[in-house]
Amino acid sequence: MPTPSEVTQRLTGNVEQVIVGKTEAVRLAVIGLLADGHLLVEDVPGVAKTMLARCLALSIGVTFRRIQCTPDLLPTDITGLSVFNQKTGQFEFNPGPIMSNIVLADEINRAPPRTQSALLEAMAERQVTVDGVTRKLAAPFCVMATQNPIEYEGTFPLPEAQLDRFLLRMTIGYPSSEAESEILLRTQLRHPVEQLRQVLSTEELLDAQERVRQVFVHQKVRDYIVRLVQATRNHPDVALGASPRGSIAVLRCAQAQAAADGLSFVLPDHAKTMAEPALAHRLILTPEARLSGRAAGTLVDQVAAQVEPPVGEEFEEA
Q1: From residue 104, how far is each of 17, 134, 221, 263, 316 by CA, in Å?
Q2: Does an H or E element contain 2, and which?
Q3: Nearest-angstrom CA–CA distance, 199 and 189
Q4: Which one, of 141, 143, 125, lies nearest residue 205 by Cα?
Q5: Strands 102-106 and 142-147, bridge-based pairing
């Protein structure tokens, strides 16, 4: 079986055949996948948010379904429903798109709250309950949701409970001039996603996810993560800081990043690097901070710069 580092290199290299010049964004998405979490991608239209999810699914060879969220989307449009079969005289379950390995919830904030809540059980418990029957979701399972951070007309902001289920929040951003020129060249005759091949099996990904969980974390590093998260709760511009689920998210992401770097132990820098993508979307700023234009990501970066990391310790597993 390939190591998590080899898995990261395979997936990143393969996806970059389609998404040009965004190595860090692609790598962050792969880290989220290795950490067995869900991803929230916030960015303007046309920067390959949807394509990123599709490329990851093609690279692993897993089932992929896209949910285009609209104000009239119903919960059963996501989970599926039981339909009466007149021939057999019985109800038969028609599975919804959530019964897939990688699910893309496109423009998730356009779905009404009742429909958004249909994703909660699937994201948290890896199962769905329809008509009183609970069905387990197949592994691997990852929800990648996208939303436009600029246009809010006709949208339903995600509640805090929903945001807290996402392991990471990330952006992709506009490409550089050179990268955009390369995109034009690659898409001139056909879209490169049509030639994307599978480079990883489901079993190899699941094995890599299990290895990530076994990456050693020193007590001092765990304490450092706790201090980072607690500092968000005491910041004067934060009305509600990150929950213990945020601490777990930083830990899981730090383990995945360490494994992707080829290490068997987590360094304090891994936790510091992953603090912003793992914590920023979990914070609720004070009204004064929002009115002054403060961003949650900036506050997390400030906290990470102020909290002293452990030094002089041996972080390798004995």
Answers
A1: 20, 22, 33, 31, 37
A2: none
A3: 24
A4: 141
A5: parallel
Please report which helix (H) or strand (E) contains residue 243, including its range.
none
Determine the 3-state secondary structure of 42 from DSSP: strand
Domain ranges of the chain: 4-207, 215-306
Nearest to 71 by CA among 147, 148, 151, 155: 155
Look up the CATH number of domain 215-306.
1.10.8.80
What's the CATH superfamily of 4-207? P-loop containing nucleotide triphosphate hydrolases (3.40.50.300)
pTM to 2 decimals?
0.92
Tokens of 226: 């706790």
pLDDT tens sequence across 297-311: 999 999 999 999 998
To the nearest 10°, report the CA torsion of 131, 36, 150, 178: -140
Handedness of CA 224, 35, 26, 242 (dihedral sign): negative
Would you state the structure tokens that stand for residue 79, as one six-digit string?
A: 């989970």
As beta bridge partners, residue 273 has: none
CA distance 152 to 4: 38
Q: Are 19 and 27 in contact (CB under 8 A)?
A: no
pLDDT 10s digits, 246-291: 999 999 999 999 999 999 999 999 999 999 999 999 999 999 988 8
| CA–CA separation, 55 and 102 (whole Å) | 11
Q: HSE of 307 in the Cβ direction (CA atoms, 13 Å)?
A: 27
Q: How far apart are CA 104 and CA 146, in angstroms?
A: 8
